[in-house]
Design a protein that fits this description.
The protein has one domain. It contains 3 helices and 9 strands, in the order αββββββαβββα. It has a 6-stranded antiparallel beta barrel. The chain has a two-stranded antiparallel ribbon with strand order 2-3.
C-alpha cells in the first residue's frame, strides 16, 4: 500500500489519511476544506479590516439601557470574498439618502489565524481601503483617498457546511452602509 502523506510538503500542510488512504465525505476532512476556503480567498479575495464589537465591555446608560461608549477590537486584517454592494438611492421630503447592501464571505480558518472572534451583528468591516478613487456619495461627499468603505454587519450565518454535518468552513455576512448613519462614526475617534 502506498503512503498518501506528503510529509507536510504540500500547499496545505500534512494530512494524515491513515494506512488505507480513504477519503470520506464527512467532517473528518475539515482541515482540507479549510485549506480550500482560505486559498480561494488568498488568491482572489479582497483585503478587509474587521472590527469586532465587544458588547460586554462597553458602557451603557443605566436608565435607557443604550450604549454610551462602544468598545471595538481590531482591526483584524485578512482577505475575504466581497460582492459589489448594491446601491439603493432614496429621495424623500427630508432629502437624498443612499443605502448600499453587500455580502462578504470570510473563511473561518482566516479568522482563527489572525485571532479574531466570530463575527456578529453590530460588527463593522472596512473594504477597499487602498483605492484612490471611489464613489464620493458613499462617504458623505468627502473625497479622502485611501479611506475605503465602512459597512455595518446586519446578519451573520455560518456557511459552507460539510455535507450534512454541523461543521462549516466560513461565515456569510450581510452588510449595509447608510449615508445618514455611517459606520465609521462608531469606530473612528471624533
Amino acid at each position: 500500500m502506498s503512503d498518501c502523506n506528503d510529509g507536510g510538503n504540500g500547499p496545505c500542510g500534512d494530512f494524515d489519511f491513515g494506512n488505507d488512504c480513504a477519503f470520506t465525505l464527512d467532517a473528518s476532512e475539515l482541515k482540507l476544506f479549510d485549506c480550500i476556503a482560505t486559498e480561494l480567498n488568498n488568491a482572489g479575495g479582497t483585503p478587509i479590516e474587521f472590527f469586532h464589537l465587544e458588547v460586554c465591555e462597553g458602557t451603557r446608560d443605566p436608565l435607557y439601557d443604550e450604549p454610551i461608549q462602544r468598545v471595538f477590537r481590531g482591526p483584524y486584517i485578512f482577505k475575504a470574498h466581497v460582492t459589489q454592494p448594491e446601491s439603493q438611492p432614496q429621495a424623500t421630503e427630508q432629502g437624498f439618502k443612499n443605502e448600499w447592501t453587500g455580502e462578504i464571505w470570510m473563511a473561518r480558518a482566516d479568522l482563527e489565524k489572525v485571532g479574531a472572534p466570530a463575527p456578529f451583528e453590530g460588527d463593522v468591516v472596512r473594504i477597499w481601503g487602498d483605492q484612490p478613487y471611489f464613489d464620493e456619495d458613499a462617504v458623505s461627499f468627502e473625497s479622502i483617498p485611501n479611506k475605503g468603505f465602512y459597512f455595518d454587519v446586519t446578519k451573520v450565518d455560518p456557511d459552507g457546511h460539510l455535507f450534512t454535518t454541523s461543521s462549516f468552513v466560513g461565515f456569510k455576512l450581510i452588510t449595509k452602509r447608510r449615508t445618514e448613519f455611517t459606520p465609521e462614526r462608531r469606530i473612528l475617534p471624533p
